[in-house]
Design goal:
Layout: E1 2-6, H1 9-21, E2 28-32, H2 39-49, E3 64-68, E4 72-77, H3 84-89, H4 92-97, E5 101-105, E6 119-125, E7 131-136
Parallel strand pairs: 2-5, 2-6, 4-5
Antiparallel strand pairs: 1-7, 3-4, 6-7
Length: about 140
């Protein structure tokens, strides 16, 4: 487990980039944090760390955004789902078998879909700009 304090959105993105650059394909990153904590900023950094140059935005209404390049990042927002059954209905298992890194916002809504080997990222809002980010399960960061 590692804990980090970031003081800006840019620092949160940089931490996401650092984490993702070392993640193997097929990794699930389960993200936890209140609304506005910085989960999407962290995923923006993950995309950059994976060498992706696409625009990253929250998939709140679409549920899933796919960012494709040399590596694949699948970005889920589970805010509107009521449980893991709905996640399986949209093809969760198919996404897992593609070998992409899967970043899942609002993971608390679908925890029973995980297998226990996911990387867990918890983002706590300390102030308007400061965040405490706890990463569990990552080999390095």
């Amino acid at each position: 487990m590692s804990e980090h304090i970031t003081h800006s959105e840019g620092e949160t993105e940089a931490l996401g980039a650092s984490l993702a650059s070392a993640l193997p394909g097929g990794t699930v990153v389960a993200m936890y944090g209140d609304l506005g904590a910085g989960k999407t900023a962290f995923v923006r950094g993950m995309a950059r760390g994976m060498g992706l140059t696409c625009r990253v935005s929250s998939p709140t209404f679409t549920i899933v955004n796919e960012y494709l390049g040399e590596r694949e990042l699948i970005h889920f927002d589970m805010y509107r789902l009521s449980g893991a059954d709905e996640l399986f209905d949209i093809g969760w298992e198919d996404y897992l078998t593609r070998g992409a890194v899967c970043a899942v916002e609002w993971s608390e809504n679908v925890e029973d879909a995980f297998f226990g080997d996911e990387v867990r990222v918890t983002i706590e809002k300390l102030s308007d700009s400061d965040r405490k980010i706890t990463i569990e399960g990552a080999a390095s960061c």
